[in-house]
Design brief:
It comes from Streptomyces glaucosporus. The chain is mostly beta strands. The chain has three helices and 17 strands.
Length: 251
């Protein structure tokens, strides 16, 4: 049903309230939809369900709804809508992946719950459904990212994550961070020093100051902006720092 004052829709408001207040323990079931999985084996299904727990899809197909009451699932009626991946795997679309296991952005069990729900008439294919988010956002029934609603019934969901501000962030004060210090790779070729003022300094093969710049840590991810202007990244895995093919440990 479309409201007259905003042009948006009144779509499953009770379900939204339940999902927003859900701590991740209750399953969420989007039911009776056309689902374009973008998986070459499963394909597109009509009158189908997609079941998610937390940030993962755990089931796709018809008749999952029959167990919804047993599982205390939050049920979202998707009659007349199509569910598509929120991200399009353009390489897969043109046959550029050789194996099914290489596909990304598919709505299959084990995948991350990033998907879009739009009216059937706006979903001739996945690209046109995704384009609705930009061209007719008021018609989007749901946009779900990692299991959490970002947009619902044509409007932003209150409390959704806010996008980072444009521009390069200020240098962080990392005093006391356990990740500061000198990181050295297994071959003793790369030495990377991370300092509390958010700067890094690399020695490569005994050549000091080979690369220098700024860095930011977000969880286990580290982003680098070199003084030469290029960006790079790494990842902390336990007591190791993985960066550009190097595996480093702190000295």
């Amino acid at each position: 049903m479309t409201t007259t004052d905003t042009g948006t829709v009144n779509w499953n408001p009770e379900a939204l309230d339940e999902i927003v207040s859900n701590d991740g323990g209750r399953p969420v079931l989007f039911t009776n939809a056309r689902i374009m999985t973008m998986d070459p084996l499963i394909g597109t299904m009509t009158g189908a369900d997609i079941l998610l727990i937390g940030s993962l899809i755990v089931g796709v197909g018809p008749a999952i709804v029959t167990a919804a009451q047993d599982d205390d699932a939050i049920v979202v009626d998707c009659t007349g809508t199509t569910v598509v991946p929120a991200v399009v795997d353009t390489v897969a679309l043109v046959g550029g992946r050789g194996r099914r296991s290489e596909y990304v952005a598919t709505l299959t069990p084990g995948s991350t719950t990033d998907f879009l729900v739009v009216p059937d008439e706006l979903a001739a294919d996945v690209p046109s459904a995704v384009a609705t988010l930009v061209s007719r956002p008021e018609q989007v029934r749901a946009l779900v990212a990692a299991g959490r609603p970002v947009r619902w019934a044509g409007a932003d969901v209150p409390g959704r994550p806010t996008a980072p501000e444009a521009g390069i962030p200020a240098a962080p004060d990392l005093t006391g961070s356990p990740r500061l210090g000198v990181w050295i790779d297994r071959e003793d070729f790369l030495h990377q020093e991370l300092t509390a003022d958010g700067r890094y300094d690399e020695t490569r093969g005994g050549r000091p100051h080979a690369y220098q710049g700024r860095f930011w840590i977000d969880g286990d991810r580290i982003d680098y902006l070199d003084d030469l202007g290029f960006w790079a990244y790494g990842e902390f895995k336990g007591d190791e720092l993985h960066h550009a093919g190097y595996v480093m440990k702190r000295s």
